[in-house]
Amino acid sequence: MIGIGPAGMARLGAVVERTARTFLITGGVRSGKSTYAERLAESLGAAVSYVATGPQPSADDPEWAARVADHRARRPSDWTTIESLDLGSVLDSATGTVLIDCFGTWTTAVIDELDGWDAPTADWKPEFDDRLQAVVSAWQSCDRPIVAVSNEVGWGVVPAYRSGRIFADLLGEVNRTIAAISDQLVLMVAGRPMIVPAPAGRIDQ
Question: What CATH number has the domain bearing residue 63?
Fold first, then answer.
Protein backbone atom coordinates (compact mmCIF):
# COMPACT_ATOMS: atom_id res chain seq x y z
CA MET A 1 0.00 0.00 0.00
CA ILE A 2 1.24 3.49 -0.79
CA GLY A 3 1.80 5.45 2.38
CA ILE A 4 3.10 8.80 3.54
CA GLY A 5 6.80 8.81 4.29
CA PRO A 6 8.49 10.68 7.16
CA ALA A 7 9.27 13.71 4.99
CA GLY A 8 5.67 13.89 3.84
CA MET A 9 4.42 13.63 7.40
CA ALA A 10 6.65 16.53 8.39
CA ARG A 11 5.27 18.74 5.61
CA LEU A 12 1.71 17.87 6.59
CA GLY A 13 2.25 18.55 10.27
CA ALA A 14 1.83 14.86 11.20
CA VAL A 15 -1.93 15.32 10.94
CA VAL A 16 -2.96 12.45 8.69
CA GLU A 17 -2.71 8.77 9.53
CA ARG A 18 0.04 7.00 7.61
CA THR A 19 -2.22 4.01 6.96
CA ALA A 20 -5.07 6.07 5.49
CA ARG A 21 -5.62 5.79 1.72
CA THR A 22 -8.75 7.85 1.03
CA PHE A 23 -9.18 11.42 2.24
CA LEU A 24 -11.86 14.12 2.18
CA ILE A 25 -10.57 17.65 2.77
CA THR A 26 -13.31 20.17 3.49
CA GLY A 27 -13.52 23.74 4.73
CA GLY A 28 -14.74 27.23 3.99
CA VAL A 29 -13.77 29.62 1.23
CA ARG A 30 -10.01 30.30 1.11
CA SER A 31 -9.44 28.05 4.11
CA GLY A 32 -6.45 26.38 2.44
CA LYS A 33 -8.19 23.13 1.58
CA SER A 34 -6.94 22.87 -2.02
CA THR A 35 -3.36 23.72 -1.10
CA TYR A 36 -3.40 21.16 1.69
CA ALA A 37 -4.96 18.51 -0.57
CA GLU A 38 -2.27 19.12 -3.20
CA ARG A 39 0.50 18.71 -0.62
CA LEU A 40 -1.16 15.57 0.70
CA ALA A 41 -1.51 14.05 -2.78
CA GLU A 42 2.11 14.80 -3.57
CA SER A 43 3.22 13.20 -0.29
CA LEU A 44 1.55 9.88 -1.08
CA GLY A 45 4.46 8.86 -3.27
CA ALA A 46 2.72 8.15 -6.59
CA ALA A 47 2.01 9.98 -9.82
CA VAL A 48 -0.99 12.29 -9.42
CA SER A 49 -4.07 12.50 -11.63
CA TYR A 50 -5.70 15.86 -10.92
CA VAL A 51 -9.45 15.80 -11.62
CA ALA A 52 -10.84 19.29 -12.26
CA THR A 53 -14.63 19.49 -11.97
CA GLY A 54 -15.08 23.24 -12.36
CA PRO A 55 -16.09 25.20 -15.48
CA GLN A 56 -13.54 26.46 -17.97
CA PRO A 57 -12.21 29.96 -17.20
CA SER A 58 -13.54 32.76 -19.37
CA ALA A 59 -13.23 36.51 -19.78
CA ASP A 60 -16.82 36.86 -18.55
CA ASP A 61 -15.75 35.77 -15.05
CA PRO A 62 -12.27 37.14 -14.29
CA GLU A 63 -12.47 36.13 -10.63
CA TRP A 64 -13.01 32.48 -11.53
CA ALA A 65 -10.31 32.69 -14.21
CA ALA A 66 -7.88 33.99 -11.58
CA ARG A 67 -8.73 31.11 -9.24
CA VAL A 68 -8.15 28.55 -11.99
CA ALA A 69 -4.86 30.19 -12.94
CA ASP A 70 -3.73 30.08 -9.31
CA HIS A 71 -4.54 26.37 -9.08
CA ARG A 72 -2.76 25.60 -12.34
CA ALA A 73 0.35 27.51 -11.25
CA ARG A 74 0.61 25.43 -8.06
CA ARG A 75 0.35 22.09 -9.85
CA PRO A 76 3.60 20.23 -10.60
CA SER A 77 4.24 19.89 -14.32
CA ASP A 78 4.29 16.09 -14.15
CA TRP A 79 0.72 15.81 -12.85
CA THR A 80 -1.95 14.60 -15.27
CA THR A 81 -5.01 16.87 -15.45
CA ILE A 82 -8.41 15.33 -16.19
CA GLU A 83 -11.45 17.55 -16.76
CA SER A 84 -14.54 15.43 -16.16
CA LEU A 85 -17.77 15.16 -14.19
CA ASP A 86 -17.85 11.38 -14.62
CA LEU A 87 -15.97 10.74 -11.41
CA GLY A 88 -16.93 7.08 -11.37
CA SER A 89 -15.18 6.44 -14.69
CA VAL A 90 -12.20 8.53 -13.64
CA LEU A 91 -11.75 6.54 -10.45
CA ASP A 92 -11.99 3.33 -12.46
CA SER A 93 -9.35 4.34 -15.00
CA ALA A 94 -7.00 6.98 -13.56
CA THR A 95 -3.51 5.97 -12.50
CA GLY A 96 -1.59 6.83 -9.35
CA THR A 97 -3.10 9.08 -6.71
CA VAL A 98 -6.43 10.65 -7.73
CA LEU A 99 -6.97 14.24 -6.54
CA ILE A 100 -10.54 15.51 -7.04
CA ASP A 101 -11.05 19.27 -6.76
CA CYS A 102 -13.80 19.67 -5.93
CA PHE A 103 -17.18 18.18 -4.98
CA GLY A 104 -18.69 21.66 -4.70
CA THR A 105 -18.18 22.46 -8.38
CA TRP A 106 -19.14 18.87 -9.26
CA THR A 107 -22.46 19.29 -7.46
CA THR A 108 -23.16 22.58 -9.23
CA ALA A 109 -22.30 21.14 -12.64
CA VAL A 110 -24.46 18.05 -12.18
CA ILE A 111 -27.44 20.19 -11.16
CA ASP A 112 -26.79 22.28 -14.29
CA GLU A 113 -26.78 19.18 -16.49
CA LEU A 114 -30.04 17.97 -14.97
CA ASP A 115 -31.71 21.42 -15.34
CA GLY A 116 -32.38 21.23 -11.63
CA TRP A 117 -32.31 24.89 -10.65
CA ASP A 118 -35.84 25.58 -11.88
CA ALA A 119 -37.42 22.13 -12.19
CA PRO A 120 -39.14 20.42 -9.25
CA THR A 121 -36.54 18.56 -7.21
CA ALA A 122 -38.48 15.30 -7.44
CA ASP A 123 -38.07 15.35 -11.24
CA TRP A 124 -34.26 15.13 -11.22
CA LYS A 125 -33.10 14.15 -7.73
CA PRO A 126 -33.16 10.38 -8.49
CA GLU A 127 -30.69 10.92 -11.33
CA PHE A 128 -28.48 13.00 -9.04
CA ASP A 129 -28.58 10.21 -6.47
CA ASP A 130 -27.61 7.66 -9.14
CA ARG A 131 -24.60 9.74 -10.16
CA LEU A 132 -23.49 10.10 -6.56
CA GLN A 133 -23.90 6.36 -6.01
CA ALA A 134 -21.72 5.70 -9.06
CA VAL A 135 -18.99 7.78 -7.41
CA VAL A 136 -19.42 5.86 -4.16
CA SER A 137 -19.16 2.49 -5.89
CA ALA A 138 -16.04 3.47 -7.82
CA TRP A 139 -14.49 5.05 -4.70
CA GLN A 140 -15.00 1.89 -2.67
CA SER A 141 -13.59 -0.38 -5.38
CA CYS A 142 -10.61 1.85 -6.19
CA ASP A 143 -7.33 0.47 -4.86
CA ARG A 144 -5.35 3.69 -5.34
CA PRO A 145 -5.04 6.70 -3.02
CA ILE A 146 -7.85 9.25 -3.36
CA VAL A 147 -7.76 12.82 -2.08
CA ALA A 148 -10.95 14.83 -2.56
CA VAL A 149 -11.76 18.46 -1.78
CA SER A 150 -15.17 19.84 -0.89
CA ASN A 151 -16.74 22.97 0.58
CA GLU A 152 -18.56 23.64 3.82
CA VAL A 153 -21.45 25.94 2.93
CA GLY A 154 -24.09 25.15 5.52
CA TRP A 155 -22.76 26.96 8.58
CA GLY A 156 -24.43 30.29 7.88
CA VAL A 157 -28.02 31.37 7.50
CA VAL A 158 -30.39 29.44 5.24
CA PRO A 159 -29.94 30.87 1.71
CA ALA A 160 -32.67 33.30 0.68
CA TYR A 161 -32.98 31.88 -2.83
CA ARG A 162 -34.10 28.42 -3.94
CA SER A 163 -30.91 27.79 -5.92
CA GLY A 164 -28.79 28.44 -2.85
CA ARG A 165 -30.90 26.12 -0.73
CA ILE A 166 -30.72 23.36 -3.33
CA PHE A 167 -26.94 23.65 -3.55
CA ALA A 168 -26.39 23.76 0.21
CA ASP A 169 -28.69 20.81 0.82
CA LEU A 170 -27.21 18.61 -1.89
CA LEU A 171 -23.60 19.45 -1.12
CA GLY A 172 -24.27 18.64 2.53
CA GLU A 173 -25.60 15.27 1.39
CA VAL A 174 -22.57 14.71 -0.85
CA ASN A 175 -20.16 15.61 1.95
CA ARG A 176 -21.81 13.22 4.41
CA THR A 177 -21.78 10.44 1.84
CA ILE A 178 -18.12 10.84 0.88
CA ALA A 179 -16.99 11.38 4.47
CA ALA A 180 -18.63 8.10 5.45
CA ILE A 181 -16.46 6.15 2.99
CA SER A 182 -13.21 8.06 3.57
CA ASP A 183 -10.42 6.78 5.79
CA GLN A 184 -9.68 10.30 6.96
CA LEU A 185 -11.72 13.51 7.14
CA VAL A 186 -9.77 16.75 7.44
CA LEU A 187 -11.40 20.10 8.21
CA MET A 188 -9.42 23.18 7.22
CA VAL A 189 -9.80 26.20 9.50
CA ALA A 190 -7.86 29.36 8.57
CA GLY A 191 -5.16 27.33 6.89
CA ARG A 192 -4.82 24.78 9.68
CA PRO A 193 -5.85 21.14 9.24
CA MET A 194 -7.95 19.44 11.89
CA ILE A 195 -8.75 15.74 11.93
CA VAL A 196 -12.47 15.03 12.34
CA PRO A 197 -12.83 11.69 14.14
CA ALA A 198 -15.32 9.11 12.96
CA PRO A 199 -18.55 9.02 15.01
CA ALA A 200 -19.03 6.17 17.46
CA GLY A 201 -22.37 5.28 15.85
CA ARG A 202 -23.95 5.74 12.46
CA ILE A 203 -25.42 9.16 11.67
CA ASP A 204 -27.92 9.18 8.83
CA GLN A 205 -29.08 12.80 8.99
Answer: 3.40.50.300
